Amino acid sequence: MPQQDPLEKGKALAGAEAAEAVSPGMRLGLGTGSTVAFFLRALGHRVQGGELPGIVGVPTSQRTEREAGELGIPLSTLEKVGFLDLTVDGADEVDPELDLIKGLGGALLREKMVAQATRHMIIIADRSKLVERLGTRSPLPVEVVPFSWESHLPFFETLGARAVLREVSDGRPFSTDNGNLILDCHFPQGIGNPSGLQDALANRAGVVESGLFLGMANEVLVGGEGDVLKMTRKDASAACQNGDRL
After folding, report:
1. Which residues form the catalytic set?
2. What is the residue range of 53's domain?
3. Is residue 162 part of a domain?
4. CA atoms within 13 A on the CB side of 212
5. Helix axes 6-20, 34-48, angle to 10 degrees
């Protein structure tokens, strides 16, 4: 029997631990991505076992809606639920302050809407996602409207980024669930001032949302080969510095 990849094993451990944080009756935000898939499976197992009566989930993408539905997880919408007790999602980068880059899965707008509606946010990740500075491992995804998207390229250059239109395998532009495009912004030295960059993007007409998730995560569960490291805001810096020990 082939041995499970250490990173995949870490994702599975973190996803299972996040599922244990769910209590009966909770209103949940359900993130998107390969790491979240492990959480959904563990959550579905608990639902099918009758452990979580009354829970309802709000999916952040069509993919998650489909996966959760197949697992028997009850679903609703953000407008019907109103607020969320807990959101579980993944991340592409996590820095020492638990600030995040998200969006390589293409669901950043809906993920951020759900994150803003939640009382507590848990991020699940493997140790490869820990960085000292945002933008050093992953590009920053920025969702833009299709109209004249090329006009943003010089603007991103002024911010120190090289923006590349995301494409699917056949060369067509990637389209989000909202019908928008994504520009993946590469910062050669990382992002020195994430909050300032977020403000600049928010003020740019045609930019819908960015993958900067600042001050939103309450805790991060980092899966290693045999255990899970829990990082919270007060001890995030020390945990990130020791992340290579997992």
Report:
1. 111
2. 6-128+215-233
3. yes
4. 24
5. 40
